[in-house]
């Protein structure tokens, strides 16, 4: 007689959910099913929950206080470099350029050092730059002379005076309608306080380029010339100037004229005296009979776009007089 199967007692757990069917083990069974045992969920007592919430709130408040005590982020500006008109600064520039670039040193030895000693008030210099655009130096000088007389002298070339000049008055002295609008836009930005002579002198190079490009008719080339010849900033590289690019091509024996995008890398060794090195590039191009005085100017035809056009001047000194 075969062995009878005895029912096995089922383990029970207080509060456990009932199983679907009891497990029966027979003589011929080879596997068994374990009963389902639910996971226990730990419940926090009221005192423990309160303590946890208090600790979380305390940590949050501490972090908030820590952040509140931190000083606000500082907005840094580039330091304004020493002017090239400062005594001894040209000598320092030449020493640096000779040591950092022997090829440039040979060019330096062939020419007299530059002189940066003229200074016009920024508003006058910018107005002058606008008047000379796209004109030969002689023609620009003629119109500028009449413009100064119309204002009552160079000391009277002021924002309010220029704003009062009508387009017909400016047209009579040879100023085009477009340039008249440029002069009025410059004067308006002074009158509204967007620009001022003092703020321009105190701006770093990057800010100057940004703010002055907001003026109609003043593009990057004009700003670069203004910074070099009027403010005497030492480290300005006019990457779009044909004369400087031609000088770089001659200096390094390049097959092609370097693109503006290549100029920064080619001239990196000249920092922080790229203005002085650029002056020697004009001299080099001029001495080789290259059209160094053909310099493209970025002229704003609208607030949204800029065009580069060619300006012919009679000499490198003519470019310097734009400042």
Automatic annotation (TrEMBL):
GO cellular component: nucleus; protein-DNA complex
Protein family: Belongs to the alkylbase DNA glycosidase AlkA family.
Superkingdom of source: Eukaryota
Region entry Disordered, spans: 1-32
PANTHER family: DNA-3-METHYLADENINE GLYCOSYLASE
Keyword annotations: DNA damage, DNA repair
A Pfam match: HhH-GPD
MF annotations from Gene Ontology: alkylated DNA binding; DNA-3-methyladenine glycosylase activity; DNA-7-methylguanine glycosylase activity
Residue ranges of domain HhH-GPD in the record: 131-286
Name this polypeptide is given: HhH-GPD domain-containing protein
InterPro entries associated with the record: Alkylbase_DNA_Glycosylase/TA, DNA_glycosylase, HhH-GPD_domain
Biological-process GO terms, alphabetical: base-excision repair, AP site formation; DNA alkylation repair
Matches recorded under Gene3D superfamilies: 1.10.1670.40, Hypothetical protein, domain 2
Source species of the chain: Stephania cephalantha
CDD domains attached to this UniProt entry: ENDO3c
Compositionally biased tracts (Low complexity): 1-23
